[in-house]
Write a structure and sequence with these properties.
Radius of gyration of chain B: 18 Å
Number of strands of chain A: 19
CATH topology of the largest domain in chain A: Aconitase, domain 3
Mean pLDDT of chain A: 97
Number of helices of chain A: 17
Number of helices of chain B: 8
Structural class of chain B: alpha/beta
CATH architecture of the largest domain in chain A: 2-Layer Sandwich
Oligomer: heterodimer
CATH superfamily of the largest domain in chain A: Aconitase, domain 3
Shape of chain A: globular
Number of strands of chain B: 7
Strand content of chain B: 15-25%
Number of domains of chain A: 3
Radius of gyration of chain A: 21 Å
Strand order of the largest sheet of chain A: 5-4-3-6-7
Strand content of chain A: 15-25%
CATH class of the largest domain in chain A: Alpha Beta
Mean pLDDT of chain B: 96
CATH topology of chain B: Aconitase, domain 4
Number of domains of chain B: 1
Largest interface: A-B, 78 and 54 residues
Helix content of chain A: 25-40%
Low-confidence stretches of chain B: none
Structural class of chain A: alpha/beta
């Protein structure tokens, strides 16, 4: 048999009908994750056509996007704190899930959280699965060797009704990452550097496979951070070969296989990594041994520099100028030292336990600068509980940061957690688009270490300086 | 979905590259449970000033943009989130095609499922379109060609299945539902169960 890539193996394993020149493939979906924002209209379509949900048992729902991060235990609580349209949307989600028999991790669930945090945490995200969600950061789950990608609401309806999607086979892009990270440099810096290298449209039409010693050396939390931002490079999916790190993470989780089924699954999963000599449509290589912490300076994640570098010179491009003007940033000048108003530590990119530990390591025994509002939002209620068991919440609150309930929160500012007009926010999230965190808000993307160091200094700061002290 | 064969319009131009879905429809408008009425949210943060008044200098607000149904945008249009609210907002506003040198994957998929035609053109054609806002152009789904002034035209990529669906107003869910037997067989015969 021909040498096949990880992607190729998962794709072939899920073809109900192979693609032809005239028609796309019918691809079977093993896990459909859903949240309140991108599903209501899909359920409306099913209802109007008298269709039912084919496999509610392969569908899992949560509440995260428009969900408040202040304590809410019921719909009644919600109606007190949330905007009426957000509360109505959540009510519709709860009703739709009840009617369809879909398991919903509701406000009273200790397992609720950001959709891309809970799938792995529950062990339902597994190697070799096809996973979709009406959310572009579904690429996160590719860290386990799953083929996972974001879909629109019409496709959410397709999966609800048929458990399948019509898909054209994407191309493959191998990103070979070599070298060892220096202290203070993280997985977030790797993915920001990759996006800077290939550009925000560089992965369009492709599935990325991240490979090489620097990727193999990452923990699962870190691998998720890398795969999460594949979409910021234009790729719908990013994958990493499953290995012992993957299996150790999954073993014993509530929805992971157990007993004999576990042994069988691991045996199957060991066959998933790309075969030696398999074909990729494109390859890119990156050595991270000299990588510095990375920060963005503009209004897309490809506008990124090492933290100790200057903003690039004015290229004369009107989009570049418009972007710098929006950010209040000057070409040729450093970002380091710029005063910030808000620091946000959270989102499906960086809200897992290791991210919170990273941030806490720099905030322990220190104070957030008085001019800064710092918001720490764990990725899930389970992560929150674990962090509290380690005393991380106390570290954050003692430093003067806010410690919240889980949710997407200030990453996209649709739950009331927003950054003010003209304010500068250093954020561990994934998008620095205009207005992403609030109307007129300015976003600088960075790692949890950089965000924490910045919170302490009140200015954009290199975490390596604090780490060296 | 309505059948789409060909349509003509003057263009309206947004030259900026990497226009993301947060610009097309900001997240604060996503707390809705229907696709209807999103045209008012289209490019909201660019279209309106702090007081909520239309900005006279924004391309879509200019008098000559009235009635235009074809948008020319900078490279990599529609990057960012999977929100189908983006094509819903464009269609509700009256845009029926987007022309660029690059269109993001999820936005492109979502557009095709709603009858918004993604038209990818070469850099030279794109440069000409950016420099000539208000040009009369024709999107021809049948021939997969973009008609330009002066009887010129360029081909644009559109896979056969998407073309067939647009031309015949075919709903892809109907097509998938017809695969029910193959899906059941797959579920029964596969080597492992999720």
């Amino acid at each position: 048999m021909n040498a096949r890539s990880l992607f190729e193996k998962v794709w072939q394993d899920h073809q109900v009908v192979a693609e032809t020149a005239d028609a796309p493939a019918v691809l079977y979906i093993d896990l459909h994750l859903t949240h309140e924002v991108t599903t209501p209209e899909a359920f409306n379509v099913l209802k109007s056509r008298g269709l039912s949900v084919r496999r509610p048992d392969l569908t899992l729902a949560t509440l995260d996007h428009s969900t408040p991060t202040v304590p809410v235990r019921s719909l009644k609580d919600l109606e007190r704190v949330a905007e009426s349209s957000a509360a109505a949307q959540i009510r519709v989600m709860i009703e739709n899930c009840r009617e369809a028999g879909i398991r919903l991790l509701d406000f009273d669930s200790d397992q609720r959280g950001i959709v891309h945090v809970i799938g792995p945490e529950l062990g339902v995200t597994q190697p070799g699965k096809t996973i979709v969600c009406g959310d572009s950061h579904t690429s996160t789950h590719g860290a386990f060797g799953a083929l996972a990608f974001g879909i629109g609401t019409t496709e959410v309806g397709h999966v609800l009704a048929t458990q399948c999607l019509l898909q054209r086979k994407p191309k493959t892009l191998a990103i070979n990452v070599s070298g060892r990270l220096a202290p203070g440099v993280t997985a977030k810096d790797i993915i920001l550097a990759i996006i800077g290298r290939i550009g925000v449209g560089g992965g369009t039409g492709h599935v990325i496979e991240y490979r090489g010693e620097a990727i193999a050396a990452l923990s699962m939390d870190e691998r998720m951070t890398v795969c999460n931002m594949s979409i910021e490079a234009g790729a719908r999916a990013g994958m990493i070969a499953p290995d012992d790190v993957t299996f150790q993470y999954l073993q014993g989780r509530p929805l992971a296989p157990a007993g004999a089924a576990w042994d069988q699954a691991v045996k199957r999963w060991r066959g998933l990594p790309s075969d030696a000599g398999c074909h990729f449509d494109r390859e890119v290589s990156l050595d991270v041994s000299r990588l510095a912490p990375m920060i963005t300076f503009g209004t897309n994640p490809g506008m990124v520099i090492p933290i100790d570098a200057a903003v690039p010179a004015d290229s004369g491009d009107s989009s570049f100028r418009k972007s710098l003007e929006y950010m209040g940033v000057e070409a040729g000048k450093p970002m380091l030292g710029r005063p910030v108003d808000v620091v946000f530590i959270g989102s499906c990119t960086n809200s897992r336990l290791s991210d919170l530990r990273d941030a806490a390591s720099l905030l322990r025994g220190r104070r957030v600068a008085p001019s800064v509002r710092a918001l720490v939002v764990p990725g899930s209620q389970a992560t929150k509980k674990q962090a509290e068991a380690e005393g991380l919440d106390k570290v954050f609150t003692a430093a003067g940061a806010e410690w919240r309930e889980s949710g997407c929160s200030m990453c996209l500012g649709m739950n009331g957690d927003t950054v003010g007009r003209g304010q500068l926010c250093v954020s561990t999230s994934n998008r620095n688009f205009e207005g992403r965190q609030g109307i007129g808000a300015r976003t600088v993307l960075a790692s949890p270490l950089t965000a924490a160091a910045t919170a302490v200094a009140g200015r954009i700061s290199d975490p390596r300086e604090l780490l060296a002290r | 979905m309505d059948k789409i064969t060909r349509f003509s319009s003057r263009t309206v131009v947004l030259p900026q590259s990497d226009i993301d879905t947060d610009q097309i429809v900001p997240a604060r408008f996503l707390t809705t449970t229907t696709r209807k009425g999103l045209g008012k949210a289209l490019f909201a943060d660019w279209r309106y000033d702090k007081a909520g008044q239309p900005r006279a200098d924004f391309a879509l607000n200019r008098p000559e943009a009235a009635g235009c149904s074809i948008l020319v945008a900078g490279n990599n249009f529609g990057c960012g989130s999977s929100r189908e609210h983006a094509p819903w907002a464009l269609l509700d506003f009256g845009i029926r095609a987007v022309i660029s040198t690059g269109i993001a994957d999820i936005f492109r998929n979502n557009s095709l499922k709603n009858g918004l035609v993604p038209v990818i053109v070469d850099a030279a054609t794109h440069g000409w379109l950016l420099a000539n806002p208000g040009a009369d152009v024709t999107v021809d789904v049948e021939s997969r060609r973009l008609g330009l002034p002066g009887d010129r035209s360029v081909e644009f990529p559109l896979d056969g299945f998407s073309r067939y669906c647009l031309l015949n107003g075919v709903d892809q869910l109907g097509y998938l539902l017809k695969q029910a037997d193959a899906i059941s067989r797959f579920e029964k015969e596969r080597a492992w169960q999720p």
